[in-house]
């Protein structure tokens, strides 16, 4: 049956940036189809709550505090998963941040922060978890890119650079690890109603409602995305329905790039 293609029963699924927004929605959806969830974030309070909420619904979930820019944190995750589960089946590299500034206005610290979280974090966690995935016969990696990783955007120089890097890193990883039966794809959301998007309004000093409305107005579907919209795409890429899909980007943006 078609729903069997979406089943991830007993699959070990790791999600970064899982305490809120797209990461939280993806963690919930992957748990609903049977995934054993390992939630990673730097926000320990919200991350622990997210894992607890999943357990109260009858799902298997735990939270590990992890700064994806820190190699020791990523190694700790590797050691813990190897000890507790022995495998990784799905890795959703989702953690990211944005600073709405041009290269002239952006200071070096913020450049490093955006690039490190959004791009280096994909590299580091993949570096330590791919060996576990390969040893258990393969799996699926989904990296969060952006529409602005495929085209430019205003006052977001570091973010655009980092997300473009994620898009092409995805392709390189797909080439390198395809022989290990590891599929690597990139999901590219458009503007999605998350704490990250609402923080952009504050950075740009505009009212949230006006900012969200302006983000929707030019899209053929005339709305911004929800975290669940993006999570649905993540589930597709994680599932057997995408068994011959690798090295590509799935644009989920209400037609914005069109």
Question: If you had to describe this structure to a student in words, what would you say it looks like?
Answer:
- The chain is α/β, with parallel strands linked by helices and 258 residues long.
- Helices cover 46% and strands 15% of the residues.
- The protein contains eight helices and seven strands, in the order βαβαβαβαβαβαααβ.
- The protein has helices spanning 21-32, 44-56, 71-84, 108-135, 157-177, 195-204, 208-216, 227-238; strands at 12-16, 36-41, 61-65, 90-93, 139-144, 182-189, 249-252.
- It has a seven-stranded parallel β-sheet, with helices on both faces.
- β1 (12-16), α1 (21-32) and β2 (36-41) form a beta-alpha-beta unit.
- α3 (71-84) runs parallel beside α4 (108-135).
Topology:
Blueprint: E1 12-16, H1 21-32, E2 36-41, H2 44-56, E3 61-65, H3 71-84, E4 90-93, H4 108-135, E5 139-144, H5 157-177, E6 182-189, H6 195-204, H7 208-216, H8 227-238, E7 249-252
Parallel strand pairs: 1-2, 1-4, 2-3, 4-5, 5-6, 6-7
Helix pairs in contact: 1-8, 3-4, 4-5
